[in-house]
Amino acid sequence: MSEQKQLFKVTIDNITVEVEPGTTILNAARKIGGDVTPPAMCYYSKLKDSGGKCRTCLVEVAAGSTADPRPMPKLVASCRTTVMDGMVVKNITSDRVTDARNGVVEFLLINHPLDCPICDQAGECHLQDLSYEHGKGASRYEFKRRTFDKHDLGPYIQLHMTRCILCYRCVYTADQVSKERRHGVLSRGDHAEIATYIEKSLDNDFIGNVIDVCPVGALTDKTFRFKNRVWFTKPVDAHCNCDKCSGEVQLWMRGDEVLRVTARKDEWGEVKDTTKGEPGWICNTCRFERKKISDWVIEGPSQVSRHSVISQGHYVGMKKPNETVAKVMGGRDPKLLMNIKDVSEVNQVELSEIKGPATSQVFKQLKKGN
Amino acid sequence: MGRKLLLEKAHVEGIRHYDVYRREGGYRSVEKVLKTMSPEAVVEEVKKSGLRGRGGAGFPTGMKWSFLAKPEGVPRYLVVNADESEPGTFKDRYLMEFIPHLLIEGMICASYALGSNRSYIYIRGEYWWVKEILEVAVQEARNAGFLGKNILGSGFDCDIFVQPGAGAYICGEETALIESLEGKRGNPRIKPPFPAVKGLWGCPTVVNNVESIAAVVPIVNEGGEEYAKLGTGKSTGTKLISACGNINKPGVYEIEMNISVEEFIYSDEYCGGIANGKKLKACIPGGSSVPILPANLLLKTAKGETRMMTYESLSDGGFATGTMMGSGGFIVMDEDQCVVKHTYTLARFYRHESCGQCSPCREGTGWMEKILLKIDQGKGSMSDIDLLWDIQRKIEGNTICPLGDAAAWPVAAAIRHFRDEFEWHVTNPSEALVRNYGLANYAKPLEIAAPTA
Amino acid sequence: MKFSEEQLKKVEEMISHYPEGKQKSALIPLLHYTQQQNGGWLSAEAMDYVAELLKITSIEVYEVATFYSMYNLQPVGKTVFEVCQTGPCMLRGSDDIVAYIYEKLGIKPGQTTEDGLFTLKTVECLGACGYAPMMQLGPDYREHLTKEKIDALIAEGKAKAN
């Protein structure tokens, strides 16, 4: 006898979607997927109270609702603004949004060390993706970048404060997932930092999850430090019988070596639900201690669906992100004036078939073979 | 001479204490409210008075009160914002220091109107001695039966507590203030929900400025309609203006909002003119975050009308040629003052006070400070001025709380009205280090001062 | 660190300002009090003790103590000059005051004299713009500063130490 729930219609960049009342603009946009989804650096759907801080997800509300179609004067954080029936939102179709987002990316980068070549997060870093998609080629910042005193968080977690964007996700994770918080945001303003004040190692059983939620390379896995670049490792799904967590993980392998263990992530880079439908946070033992292939039951290659650098690799079972530009532009697709793949010689060869390094000689041989 | 409603008796000997305050007619409004009025009627009077929030935003106080959610069985709170930290503003301190019972009297009336049985005064920690004055006054009011259980036999319970801050401008933002009152970092909350629905400890809360709450006393005593007769148009009643900078008589003045800016600066009753016989160069009339105006636009609007000390007249012309009443922090600069350097100190202030939660404010304020310092020291280039403009534009409106706007506006206005001064710093780097650039002397440049040893 | 019975009574009074279970709200006043009782600064030990008193975690105290500018996390001199340097005070010559203190005591903002008597800090707007230049000295303000007044304050600070 349950009454059918009334759904709200919301139009984002000319695409209309129906969502339940209480849904945020960002989550409505994620339902559509692809380019109309605003980037989110601090919001994390599985962490209560997260979001609103980084300002990358700002969107323009062109009409508040059917009942009150006035536009909202300021850009709003889509991750913390709930939809109304008949709301019209502009994301990539708004110049104001593009301009503001451009500014936010620049702000996030002025004090960033840009040390991607030595950063373990490179390749799966949200800030890299964000800069690539919304940033500019050069910085106008000419002053000394901010530095912090080094701070040791113990044997498992490596902290690089200079890379941090203060999304507060790790703070919420400690509060909500590990239920014990020893680190926090100290100081204020541009000197605010993640730290424990007096050096303490973080050793709660679930604290390792802060690594998975960190959008940048501020918190990385010490047991994986400088071991490999993520794009050289092969992600496979695996599980084990763990008495602390679900044991459902993703292994990052090279040959038969398990280089790193992480939780499984969805297309937004967030921890996936387990097969039982609970958030798939994993325990420290699974993450840091089980590095032998015999510890795990391998299920098969992971589906890599992140809209990110690693998805450029030729992974088995790669899922391409939803392409929505044509729909947004009413059938036109301005992005593809020319498909480079069709004209580039390089792409006439399947690179993943090359065994060993792809030297020009090997490449030419293969091309001849075609 | 304009009428005074708040500070009329501020200098009566001993007014700081209950006995004298009571003898001078204090706490009449509490008697009137508790014995003859319903809470709704008090809200109605405040609405009729047209009182606008005196903290800076100028939002109608009665309207704010009527938004307060009143769910069954949930306590409601009144919090008075005495975290006065906007550069140029020191009016609330004056009121609390000299006539603390006026605030307490207003708070009891407001608490009754809003149904708050536990009200707080959040005062900036640096005003430690004022906090102690308030605590004594609260105790006196308690002893006299104006606070506590069943006040004047009305069945209404109310107590007031004084909560100190600890040095954070951001806690003047109402949700940051609430966070701080909960014993946390002063990070502004993301709105909605607004405090009127979910404020202190998750309960409906009204946060009002000291002066707004003090104004409730004359409003109740004289009636909202009578109050609204003072002032001009929508700027009803009196306003406390704290004047500082290069004037002869810095201090706190209560003005009826019907005098001109010129009168305020030059008459002996108020600022008494520019100090040392110098000329007026520029003024920031409403606390450091409102746009600076050069002398010509300050005294007359772009339309050529006389600019008045009212909310409407000060903002006439928008940000292009106008400014704002803000919190009433009136900063006057004479011809010798350097706008670039002054803007730099403000940028430094906002960088220092940014909570660091959201990226545009955390990163942008520091960036602006660095560029302004560079220009001030004669190391800037023309493109820095454009860059500065672009940075402030990208902060404004894109932050969680208004501190971002407050940091952006002074920079924007300084460039808008004094771009030539910025350019002069770029083109005359060595001169910029030894003397200030005076707008009042465009036609007749000042003699270059000898470098000081 | 441990408070005496009398000090604990004071803490209890602070906590009584808030509804049941909201004792965390007493954190800011309690940190002020602790700093005052602890020679003008907050050691890690003192902050841990505050956490214990309020039944909250230490990190909650550190987060707050590092946020607000009035808490000293390093030992300070017996007399702390906190000179305001924001716009309105700058217009009235606060830079000269800072320079004069340097001239007299040889300390720059953030530094303490070798004998541990004086610390100089520059601070942002203290809400006394009309009485500029000014400084905070303990719980009080010193306004309309002049070189003569600084001399007197230094003498006062030295006398206090003896």
Automatic annotation (TrEMBL), chain A:
It is found in: Membrane. GO terms for molecular function: 2 iron, 2 sulfur cluster binding; 4 iron, 4 sulfur cluster binding; metal ion binding; oxidoreductase activity. CDD domains: fer2. It comes from the Bacteria. This is NADH-quinone oxidoreductase subunit G. PANTHER family: NADH-UBIQUINONE OXIDOREDUCTASE 75 KDA SUBUNIT, MITOCHONDRIAL, RESPIRATORY NITRATE REDUCTASE. Its main location: membrane. It holds the Pfam family NADH-G_4Fe-4S_3.
UniProtKB/TrEMBL annotation, chain B:
This is NADH-quinone oxidoreductase subunit F. Belongs to the complex I 51 kDa subunit family. It catalyses: a quinone + NADH + 5 H(+)(in) = a quinol + NAD(+) + 4 H(+)(out). Gene3D superfamilies: 3.10.20.600, 6.10.250.1450, NADH-ubiquinone oxidoreductase 51kDa subunit, NADH-ubiquinone oxidoreductase 51kDa subunit, iron-sulphur binding domain. Coiled coil: none annotated. NDH-1 shuttles electrons from NADH, via FMN and iron-sulfur (Fe-S) centers, to quinones in the respiratory chain. It holds the Pfam family NADH_4Fe-4S. The keyword Metal-binding applies. Residues 340-385 form the NADH-ubiquinone oxidoreductase 51kDa subunit iron-sulphur binding domain. The keyword Metal-binding applies. Its EC number is 7.1.1.-. Its cofactor is [4Fe-4S] cluster; FMN. GO terms for molecular function: 4 iron, 4 sulfur cluster binding; FMN binding; metal ion binding; NAD binding; NADH dehydrogenase (ubiquinone) activity; quinone binding. Keywords: 4Fe-4S, Flavoprotein, FMN, Iron, Iron-sulfur, Metal-binding, NAD, Quinone, Translocase. InterPro entries: NADH-UbQ_OxRdtase_51kDa_CS, NADH-UbQ_OxRdtase_suF, Nuo51_FMN-bd, Nuo51_FMN-bd_sf, Nuop51_4Fe4S-bd, Nuop51_4Fe4S-bd_sf.
UniProtKB/TrEMBL annotation, chain C:
Keywords: 2Fe-2S, Iron, Iron-sulfur, Metal-binding, NAD, Translocase. Coiled coil: none annotated. Binds 1 [2Fe-2S] cluster. GO terms for cellular component: catalytic complex; membrane protein complex; organelle envelope; organelle membrane. Belongs to the complex I 24 kDa subunit family. One of its GO terms (molecular function) is 2 iron, 2 sulfur cluster binding. Its cofactor is [2Fe-2S] cluster. PROSITE patterns: COMPLEX1_24K (PS01099). The keyword Iron-sulfur applies. It comes from Lacibacter cauensis. This is NADH-quinone oxidoreductase subunit E. SUPFAM superfamilies: Thioredoxin-like. Pfam families: 2Fe-2S_thioredx. Gene3D superfamilies: Glutaredoxin, NADH-quinone oxidoreductase subunit E. GO terms for biological process: inorganic cation transmembrane transport. PANTHER family: NADH DEHYDROGENASE [UBIQUINONE] FLAVOPROTEIN 2, MITOCHONDRIAL (PTHR10371:SF3), NADH DEHYDROGENASE UBIQUINONE FLAVOPROTEIN 2, MITOCHONDRIAL (PTHR10371).
